[in-house]
Each structure stands twice: as C-alpha cells, then as structure tokens.
Amino acid sequence: MSVTHSPETHAQLIARIPTVTGRELSEWFDTLEHGPGLSRCLERSNWLADEYNLSHGYAQAIVQEYDRRRRNRSFVPRQRP
C-alpha cells in the first residue's frame, strides 16, 4: 500500500532528513542512482528503508523528492529559433 504525504508533510520530512539520517538529500539521491535498478517507487522506498534502516515515511519522501527533481530536470522547454 502506498501512502502519499500532503505537500506540507512532505516538505517537513525533507527538511528533517539531514538531521534524522545524518546524510544530506544529495547523498540519498546518489544512493538511489547507484542502487539496484528498481523501477517502482514502493520498491525503491522499501529498499532504502530496509538497507539503511530508515522509517518508511522518510524513505518514501526521499524517493518522491528524487523523482520530482529528476522530472523537473529532464523537462527543459525548447526555445524557438
């Protein structure tokens, strides 16, 4: 079962990650990029939670933020000539 946090809760979780985990968000993003090739959010969240002893709430927030930023990075509007 997947739980989606409200935008406010998500922002609070993201802000607490460095304090709670001892690692910056960018380090978690690197971990996801170099981790197993899991495609589903739930699979990646479960892997992070199990492998790094994170709560599922924080693991899910990391995966959601990673996906959100990756989508925004890949969308670059084309300029007209």
Automatic annotation (TrEMBL):
<dbReference type="Pfam" id="PF14117">
    <property type="entry name" value="DUF4287"/>
</dbReference>
<protein>
    <submittedName>
        <fullName>DUF4287 domain-containing protein</fullName>
    </submittedName>
</protein>
<dbReference type="InterPro" id="IPR025629">
    <property type="entry name" value="DUF4287"/>
</dbReference>
